[in-house]
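Sequence, please.
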Protein backbone atom coordinates (compact mmCIF):
# COMPACT_ATOMS: atom_id res chain seq x y z
CA UNK A 1 0.00 0.00 0.00
CA UNK A 2 1.30 3.40 -0.88
CA UNK A 3 0.96 5.93 1.90
CA UNK A 4 -0.74 9.11 0.90
CA UNK A 5 1.49 12.03 0.09
CA UNK A 6 1.21 14.96 2.39
CA UNK A 7 1.69 18.39 0.90
CA UNK A 8 3.81 20.59 3.08
CA UNK A 9 2.83 24.09 3.97
CA UNK A 10 4.22 27.04 2.34
CA UNK A 11 5.15 30.59 2.07
CA UNK A 12 2.15 32.68 2.32
CA UNK A 13 2.66 36.17 3.61
CA UNK A 14 2.57 38.91 1.06
CA UNK A 15 2.05 41.83 3.39
CA UNK A 16 1.41 42.33 7.04
CA UNK A 17 -2.16 43.64 6.69
CA UNK A 18 -3.40 40.28 5.44
CA UNK A 19 -1.54 38.30 8.07
CA UNK A 20 -4.60 37.14 10.00
CA UNK A 21 -6.48 36.09 6.90
CA UNK A 22 -3.49 34.30 5.52
CA UNK A 23 -2.84 32.40 8.71
CA UNK A 24 -6.42 31.22 8.70
CA UNK A 25 -5.87 29.98 5.18
CA UNK A 26 -2.73 28.18 6.23
CA UNK A 27 -4.43 26.49 9.14
CA UNK A 28 -7.24 25.35 6.91
CA UNK A 29 -4.75 23.65 4.62
CA UNK A 30 -2.54 22.15 7.29
CA UNK A 31 -2.76 18.43 7.62
CA UNK A 32 -0.55 15.74 9.01
CA UNK A 33 2.84 16.56 10.48
CA UNK A 34 2.90 20.01 8.94
CA UNK A 35 0.08 20.98 11.28
CA UNK A 36 2.65 20.81 14.05
CA UNK A 37 4.61 23.64 12.48
CA UNK A 38 4.81 25.73 15.62
CA UNK A 39 6.00 22.91 17.83
CA UNK A 40 9.65 23.70 18.32
CA UNK A 41 12.71 23.70 16.08
CA UNK A 42 13.19 21.41 13.07
CA UNK A 43 14.42 18.00 14.16
CA UNK A 44 16.04 15.30 12.07
CA UNK A 45 13.48 12.58 11.40
CA UNK A 46 15.95 10.40 9.51
CA UNK A 47 14.65 10.75 5.97
CA UNK A 48 16.82 11.87 3.04
CA UNK A 49 17.70 15.46 2.27
CA UNK A 50 18.78 16.79 -1.11
CA UNK A 51 22.56 16.72 -1.08
CA UNK A 52 22.83 17.59 -4.77
CA UNK A 53 19.56 19.31 -5.71
CA UNK A 54 18.67 19.34 -9.40
CA UNK A 55 15.93 21.86 -10.10
CA UNK A 56 13.72 21.76 -13.19
CA UNK A 57 10.96 24.20 -14.05
CA UNK A 58 7.74 23.40 -15.88
CA UNK A 59 5.82 26.47 -17.05
CA UNK A 60 2.47 24.78 -17.07
CA UNK A 61 -0.08 25.63 -19.71
CA UNK A 62 -0.58 28.03 -22.59
CA UNK A 63 -1.49 30.72 -20.05
CA UNK A 64 2.23 31.50 -19.81
CA UNK A 65 1.89 33.47 -23.06
CA UNK A 66 0.87 36.19 -20.63
CA UNK A 67 3.44 37.06 -17.99
CA UNK A 68 2.73 40.56 -16.67
CA UNK A 69 5.27 40.36 -13.83
CA UNK A 70 7.97 38.75 -15.98
CA UNK A 71 8.04 35.80 -13.63
CA UNK A 72 9.39 33.34 -16.13
CA UNK A 73 12.66 35.23 -16.21
CA UNK A 74 12.67 36.08 -12.51
CA UNK A 75 12.02 32.52 -11.39
CA UNK A 76 14.58 31.06 -13.77
CA UNK A 77 17.19 33.61 -12.74
CA UNK A 78 16.55 32.91 -9.08
CA UNK A 79 16.99 29.16 -9.44
CA UNK A 80 20.13 29.74 -11.51
CA UNK A 81 21.63 32.08 -8.94
CA UNK A 82 21.17 30.47 -5.55
CA UNK A 83 23.99 27.94 -5.51
CA UNK A 84 26.69 28.83 -2.95
CA UNK A 85 24.76 31.87 -1.79
CA UNK A 86 24.89 32.91 1.83
CA UNK A 87 21.11 32.58 1.93
CA UNK A 88 21.19 28.97 0.77
CA UNK A 89 24.06 28.27 3.16
CA UNK A 90 21.49 28.28 5.99
CA UNK A 91 20.52 24.82 4.80
CA UNK A 92 24.04 23.42 5.15
CA UNK A 93 23.46 22.70 8.84
CA UNK A 94 20.62 20.38 7.82
CA UNK A 95 22.81 18.44 5.40
CA UNK A 96 21.35 19.93 2.23
CA UNK A 97 23.67 20.59 -0.70
CA UNK A 98 23.75 24.37 -0.75
CA UNK A 99 27.03 24.26 -2.70
CA UNK A 100 25.75 21.64 -5.14
CA UNK A 101 22.43 23.08 -6.26
CA UNK A 102 21.87 23.02 -10.00
CA UNK A 103 19.30 24.57 -12.26
CA UNK A 104 18.91 22.03 -15.05
CA UNK A 105 16.39 23.18 -17.63
CA UNK A 106 12.85 24.42 -18.09
CA UNK A 107 9.94 23.30 -20.25
CA UNK A 108 6.90 25.18 -21.47
CA UNK A 109 4.06 22.69 -21.50
CA UNK A 110 1.59 24.48 -23.75
CA UNK A 111 -0.66 21.48 -24.42
CA UNK A 112 -4.22 22.67 -23.97
CA UNK A 113 -5.53 19.17 -23.31
CA UNK A 114 -4.20 19.24 -19.77
CA UNK A 115 -3.79 22.91 -19.06
CA UNK A 116 -4.32 23.90 -15.43
CA UNK A 117 -7.51 25.35 -14.10
CA UNK A 118 -7.31 28.41 -11.85
CA UNK A 119 -6.85 26.29 -8.74
CA UNK A 120 -5.61 22.83 -9.76
CA UNK A 121 -5.95 20.01 -7.26
CA UNK A 122 -2.91 18.34 -5.80
CA UNK A 123 -3.65 15.29 -7.92
CA UNK A 124 -3.75 17.42 -11.08
CA UNK A 125 -0.49 19.11 -10.17
CA UNK A 126 1.12 15.79 -9.36
CA UNK A 127 -0.02 14.47 -12.73
CA UNK A 128 1.67 17.44 -14.36
CA UNK A 129 4.83 16.70 -12.38
CA UNK A 130 4.71 13.19 -13.77
CA UNK A 131 4.34 14.50 -17.33
CA UNK A 132 7.23 16.87 -16.75
CA UNK A 133 9.41 14.10 -15.34
CA UNK A 134 8.74 12.00 -18.41
CA UNK A 135 9.42 14.96 -20.68
CA UNK A 136 12.74 15.62 -18.93
CA UNK A 137 13.61 11.94 -18.86
CA UNK A 138 14.00 11.89 -15.10
CA UNK A 139 14.35 8.65 -13.18
CA UNK A 140 13.39 8.27 -9.51
CA UNK A 141 15.67 10.56 -7.56
CA UNK A 142 15.01 12.39 -4.32
CA UNK A 143 17.53 15.03 -5.39
CA UNK A 144 15.25 16.13 -8.22
CA UNK A 145 12.78 18.93 -7.73
CA UNK A 146 10.36 20.04 -10.41
CA UNK A 147 8.82 23.46 -9.99
CA UNK A 148 5.34 23.40 -11.51
CA UNK A 149 4.84 27.08 -12.28
CA UNK A 150 1.24 28.14 -12.72
CA UNK A 151 0.29 30.89 -15.15
CA UNK A 152 -1.24 34.18 -14.13
CA UNK A 153 -4.93 34.20 -13.35
CA UNK A 154 -5.20 31.46 -10.75
CA UNK A 155 -5.18 31.09 -7.00
CA UNK A 156 -2.27 31.39 -4.61
CA UNK A 157 -1.90 27.95 -3.06
CA UNK A 158 1.79 27.08 -2.87
CA UNK A 159 3.21 23.87 -1.41
CA UNK A 160 5.78 21.20 -2.06
CA UNK A 161 5.09 17.51 -2.23
CA UNK A 162 6.34 14.18 -3.49
CA UNK A 163 5.37 12.54 -6.75
CA UNK A 164 5.35 8.89 -5.74
CA UNK A 165 4.47 7.82 -9.30
CA UNK A 166 7.89 8.94 -10.52
CA UNK A 167 9.89 9.37 -7.35
CA UNK A 168 10.65 13.08 -7.51
CA UNK A 169 9.77 16.13 -5.44
CA UNK A 170 7.66 18.90 -6.88
CA UNK A 171 6.65 22.41 -5.97
CA UNK A 172 3.29 23.92 -6.80
CA UNK A 173 4.32 27.47 -7.56
CA UNK A 174 1.50 29.98 -8.00
CA UNK A 175 1.90 33.14 -9.99
CA UNK A 176 2.93 35.80 -7.53
CA UNK A 177 0.34 38.30 -8.68
CA UNK A 178 -2.53 35.92 -8.06
CA UNK A 179 -4.76 36.24 -4.99
CA UNK A 180 -5.24 33.89 -2.11
CA UNK A 181 -8.42 31.82 -2.14
CA UNK A 182 -10.13 34.52 -0.12
CA UNK A 183 -9.28 37.02 -2.87
CA UNK A 184 -7.57 39.29 -0.39
CA UNK A 185 -3.97 40.16 -0.99
CA UNK A 186 -1.60 38.98 -3.62
CA UNK A 187 0.40 35.81 -3.25
CA UNK A 188 3.88 37.09 -2.53
CA UNK A 189 6.46 39.50 -3.86
CA UNK A 190 9.70 38.48 -5.55
CA UNK A 191 11.09 35.06 -4.74
CA UNK A 192 9.40 34.82 -1.37
CA UNK A 193 7.20 31.87 -2.23
CA UNK A 194 9.69 29.88 -4.23
CA UNK A 195 12.53 30.50 -1.77
CA UNK A 196 10.34 29.04 0.96
CA UNK A 197 9.47 25.98 -1.08
CA UNK A 198 12.97 25.31 -2.38
CA UNK A 199 14.39 25.49 1.14
CA UNK A 200 11.81 23.05 2.42
CA UNK A 201 12.13 20.67 -0.51
CA UNK A 202 15.89 20.55 -0.10
CA UNK A 203 15.56 19.68 3.57
CA UNK A 204 12.51 17.40 3.29
CA UNK A 205 11.94 16.14 -0.27
CA UNK A 206 9.86 13.06 0.48
CA UNK A 207 6.70 14.27 2.16
CA UNK A 208 5.45 10.87 3.15
CA UNK A 209 5.17 9.24 6.54
CA UNK A 210 8.31 7.29 7.33
CA UNK A 211 10.45 9.43 5.02
CA UNK A 212 10.42 12.85 6.63
CA UNK A 213 13.79 14.51 6.99
CA UNK A 214 13.60 17.79 8.91
CA UNK A 215 10.32 18.49 10.66
CA UNK A 216 8.76 20.87 11.32
CA UNK A 217 9.84 22.32 8.03
CA UNK A 218 12.53 24.93 7.96
CA UNK A 219 10.71 27.89 6.43
CA UNK A 220 7.34 27.69 8.15
CA UNK A 221 8.45 29.19 11.49
CA UNK A 222 9.59 32.30 9.58
CA UNK A 223 6.46 33.04 7.58
CA UNK A 224 5.71 36.11 9.65
CA UNK A 225 9.11 37.65 8.97
CA UNK A 226 9.31 40.42 6.40
CA UNK A 227 11.07 39.45 3.17
CA UNK A 228 14.55 40.74 2.56
CA UNK A 229 16.61 41.38 -0.54
CA UNK A 230 19.74 39.26 -0.69
CA UNK A 231 22.57 39.28 -3.20
CA UNK A 232 23.54 36.04 -4.88
CA UNK A 233 27.10 35.08 -5.87
CA UNK A 234 26.47 36.27 -9.44
CA UNK A 235 25.44 39.70 -8.15
CA UNK A 236 21.72 39.34 -8.79
CA UNK A 237 19.39 40.44 -6.04
CA UNK A 238 16.23 38.64 -4.97
CA UNK A 239 13.58 39.13 -2.34
CA UNK A 240 13.55 35.97 -0.24
CA UNK A 241 12.02 34.57 2.89
CA UNK A 242 13.91 34.02 6.13
CA UNK A 243 14.71 30.42 7.03
CA UNK A 244 14.83 28.93 10.48
CA UNK A 245 18.36 28.18 11.66
CA UNK A 246 18.76 25.82 14.59
CA UNK A 247 22.30 27.00 15.18
CA UNK A 248 21.60 30.73 15.11
CA UNK A 249 21.19 32.82 18.23
CA UNK A 250 23.73 30.81 20.19
CA UNK A 251 22.05 27.54 19.38
CA UNK A 252 18.62 28.69 20.46
CA UNK A 253 17.56 29.16 16.86
CA UNK A 254 16.26 32.11 14.87
CA UNK A 255 14.91 33.17 11.51
CA UNK A 256 17.86 34.29 9.43
CA UNK A 257 18.78 35.37 5.91
CA UNK A 258 22.29 33.96 5.78
CA UNK A 259 24.01 30.85 7.05
ZN1 LIG B 1 6.45 25.55 4.33
Amino acid sequence: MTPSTIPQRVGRLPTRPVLALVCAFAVALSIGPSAAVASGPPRNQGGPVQTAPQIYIDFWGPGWSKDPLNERQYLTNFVRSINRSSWLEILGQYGAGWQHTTYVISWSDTDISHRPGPDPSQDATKAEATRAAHHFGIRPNHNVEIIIALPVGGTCRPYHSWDSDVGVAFVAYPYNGDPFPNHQGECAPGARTVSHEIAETMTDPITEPGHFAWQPEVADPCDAEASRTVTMPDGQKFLVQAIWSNKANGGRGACVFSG
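The longest strand covers residues 102-109.
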